[in-house]
Structure formats: C-alpha cells, structure tokens
Amino acid sequence: MAELNLQNAKLLITAGDPRQFPATPVSQIALSGRSNVGKSSLVNTLLERKALARVSSAPGKTITVNFYDVDGKLFLVDLPGYGFAKRPPQEKAKWSALTDGYFTKNRNIDRVKLVLQLIDLKVGPTADDVTMLRYLSQTGLPFAVIATKADKLNKTGRTAALEALHDHPDIPLGTPIIPFSSQTGEGKAELWNTVLKYL
Question: Are 80 and 65 in contact, with CB atoms under 8 Å apart?
C-alpha cells in the first residue's frame, strides 16, 4: 500500500444525522451490509488495526454513519447495519433515513467511488441484502460484493456459495465478488486492489 499510509488512519466522525457528514472533498468508499455481517472486522483488517472499529456485542446497536479517515486521502464510510429483527420500528425508521440520507443528501455523493456490499457467504443474500442490491443498482453507483466469513465453509460449500452469488439475478454480470475472511486475512489484498482501481 505505497499510495496510502494505513498507519495514519482514524475515526473522523460518527454521524447520526446527514448534516454531520464531513464536507471534506475526499474520495469515499462505503460499506453496506446487515448487522453482524462483519463490517467492523473488515475495517479493522483493512486498516491493520485490532480495534479501530468497535465490534459490537449486540448486533444492530449502532445507528450512525462512521467516517474513517485514511491518510487524509480516503474516507472508509461504515453505514449502519440493517436487518436486525429486534430493532423497534422508530429505530428502523432512523436507519432508513440515515442510510438513504447518505445516498441522497450527501454533499459529496460524486466522491463515492465504490460501495462494498457485504454478504455473509455461509448465509447467502438475505431479503434485506437483495433490497440493498436493487437500491444500489438504482443509484447507479459501482459496487463490489464482499463475501464475508469465507473461512466458515468447507471447499464444496464455498464453491457452491460463490457460484450462487455469481448467478444471482440482482448481482450484475462483471460485479467484483471477493471472498473475505477477517480471521485469515483472505481477500484483503484483492479488496485493496479493487478499491484502488476505482479510486
């Protein structure tokens, strides 16, 4: 990673309202996915930190958009996790407003270069994932599918799960699909290469 100094990464802002999104003209890579899919672990793995992003013990707890400043050249933007069943309706409404606000009220939407859509490889796309995939297709923003927890499957199961993603009607042909594991570090280099390509 000659282009970015990963040691120079910090949580810049935790925004609970679109008005708090930073106005800094920096490229953004957004992370989308359901609660408990491994977004915080992915941020920590990408930025080579143990606990920069807090891994929540209770899924669905965080309803904020977290902006991580990477070397002053890139924001990794962690969108709030969706699909957490126990969340009360008013919190679900807040989630929708905040996530939708990121795509519709973001002053720097033109700086969003890529959305990383995280899908648990073992579980496959849930109904909420499919809704998000369709939403991303409508926005026209480029996205890549990150198949998390890839270490949890045996070889046969993994091959079948990846084939199902490649054949999924809501994942357009040619969309990058990257098997990823925060446990083993698999997919980290490929993911950074993909991000740099879109930057």
Answer: yes
